[in-house]
Amino acid sequence: MDVLVVGGTGAAGRAAVVALAGRGHTVRALSRSGKTDVPGAIGYRADLSTGEGLAKAMSGVDAVVDAFNVRSQSYETARTAFVGATERLLAAGKEAGVGHHVLLSIVAIDNSPFAYYRAKEAQEQAVLAGQVPYTIVRATQFHEFGGQLAEQTRFGPFVVLPTFVTRPVAVSEVGEALADAVEAGPSGRAPDLCGPAVERVPDMARRTLKARGVRAVVIPLPLPGKVGAMMRSGALGGDGSGRQGRQTFDEWVRGESAKA
């Protein structure tokens, strides 16, 4: 099967490229750079904000995996980018005769108080309204999540993070789930993918920093209102049903220690 992975150089997109290439599919990794470091994959360049390059990238493609991401917590910014890119991808896919659009999304985004999650929900609605058969794969936060937040919020020796409960999952397993979705064909909403155990994000950050040899004091901060309540509730980690990942956060952290 010939598969185009959008956001093919990002964490989840690259994981999907690796999984699909490993199964013998012809894989095109779409990005702004047009490059890929995955053996056997082919790099394609396109601009999702304008659609430039999409027709060439889509030619002869059987399925599209959309793992495109936006680094913005502004609802308007994220929604414009997600929905605009998705509508352009679907239009180009329909024109090229693509038979399956696979979207990577996030667990528990329905009616969420988070601006970013509401933008992802709008993106899902764009897929539902499109004319290309689809599968939506929702996953929880990746094992890297705590460390990424720590990098963003570190001030000197201190890291202040919200009290946030989730079930982190290995990004490699997200890639496998996306590859499974491609091979299964259009299925609507696939079972949610969550990690094997409940973790607290401040603790994830603390253990990640320690594994990397970074000295810092992590301070948990319970946020007020609906946002804080949702973070503390554990709802963002899913209910444990659906598809469950195998690699634990402890196993992932040991891998980070080995790299240090």
Strands, helices and their partners?
Blueprint: E1 2-6, H1 11-22, E2 26-31, E3 42-45, H2 54-58, E4 63-66, H3 75-96, E5 100-106, H4 115-129, E6 134-139, H5 145-153, E7 154-155, E8 158-162, E9 165-166, H6 171-184, E10 188-189, E11 193-194, E12 199-200, H7 201-211, E13 217-221, H8 225-233, E14 243-244, H9 249-259
Parallel strand pairs: 1-2, 1-4, 2-3, 4-5, 5-6, 6-10, 8-13, 11-14
Antiparallel strand pairs: 7-8, 9-12
Helix pairs in contact: 1-6, 3-4, 5-7, 7-9
Task: Offer a few descriptive terms.
260 residues; alpha/beta; Rossmann fold; three-stranded mixed β-sheet; 9 helices; 21% strand; globular
Write structural notes for this entry.
The chain is α/β, with parallel strands linked by helices. It has a single domain, classed as NAD(P)-binding Rossmann-like Domain (Rossmann fold, 3-Layer(aba) Sandwich). Helices cover 42% and strands 21% of the residues. The chain has nine helices and 14 strands. The protein has helices at residues 11-22, 54-58, 75-96, 115-129, 145-153, 171-184, 201-211, 225-233, 249-259; strands at 2-6, 26-31, 42-45, 63-66, 100-106, 134-139, 154-155, 158-162, 165-166, 188-189, 193-194, 199-200, 217-221, 243-244. The strands form four sheets. It has a seven-stranded parallel beta sheet with strand order 3-2-1-4-5-6-10, with helices on both faces. α1 crosses α6, α3 packs parallel to α4 and α5 (145-153) packs across α7. It is globular. The mean pLDDT is 95.
